[in-house]
Amino acid sequence: MPKKDLIPDAYRTGRWAARAGFLAGAILLLFCSTQVLAQTAQKQEAGDCVIHVLYLGNSYTYYNNLPEIVSRLAKAGHQCQVDARMEAPGGKRLKDHWESAATHEALNSQKWDYVVLQEQSSLGIDYFLEGQPRVTSDEVFFPYAEKWAAEIARHGGRPVFFLTWARKATPEDQAALNYGFMHAGKKTGGIVAPVGLAWQRVRQEKPAMELYQRDGSHPSQAGSYLAACVLYATLYHRSPAGLPSRIMGPRVNLDTEKVEPEKNEVLVNLPRADAEFLQDAAWEAWQSLEKRGGYLTVEPAPVPVPKFARGGPLSQKNLAGTWHGEMLFYPGVGPVQMVLRLSLDEGAWKGHLNITHPGKDFAPESMELEDLRVGEREFSFSDPHSAGVNNARVEFRGALEGARVKGTAEAKVATKSGTTVEVLGDWSLRK
Question: Is the predicted pLDDT of residue 390 greater than 70, yes or no?
């Protein structure tokens, strides 16, 4: 490590350059943002105007052709006409868009007043708990949110961060999503479109209103309509109250992920009462941000992890035997049947594990536990090649809680792209 007196000049110069670059970018973004807002206001006052909006996202954007719904609402509300373009291949992160020549070509193709940035639903993190994808941090999202905000400002536009919704099975993830988008908005001066906040209110106040497709992730017609109403409020600072509840437009082919201009169909068709409630939720979400200067003050959410309680003392009498139950661990599979046989033979613990997956996607697993270790209050073992996680190693940890043995399972799965997927879960067995 270099001595302190050998590096101060270079160190200070580097830090100053970094700070100066950040400051210059922030000033540029603020200047461009002010210009965009002023120009949009002038266009609206003129009565006959067009605003240019580029959407960068993935399937949350192209489902039900969200950009088209926004454009049709703007027309019905007598706002500036929207000239929209969408770059939204399924599963794309902002990182992937940054590395895509097609996305940069879209940004360079003309002057955009706004660029709507919609990140992957888990903020680009591959983390599964009890079979569900979870949101843990913005460490992948934030650097590219900054890059895109600066690039959009350099092109004279303003970034709009599309605050997405938590999946149906994990509503608690909304806190982590709120933090990620508010953090990005505050740091870059971008606009936050509070779709997830409106979504949360609807789920709490009208739980019977279905905002999701069957997969519990993608938006239904009502979900896309709610998102469109929030974007309408965000772009025009106008309430969507009274806008039509039935929207026609070209559909997006879900197989090709492309708009089919020649195929005009119903994109949204909602009962008037439902549409009015969604309009109100959208406007309330936007106003709640506007009153706070455009951002909520939120803290990073804790990373969700499986619970492991310190168990009771272990002995041959209470631990040896055959234990049956379920494990909730494998992504997208649901509970699997687990059988664990434990015995003490001449002072050495031995074990056998059986795992039966539902359906026919994975063959049953059966193995002797070569690395079983039993301590005073907990025990551990592994499955060296588990089919349910791409033949990765699964580490198990267990303890005795009353009449059950309970524990956790954890695996780290390497992908072809060089990233690591973390998979965690838990299990509970009874004799």
Answer: yes
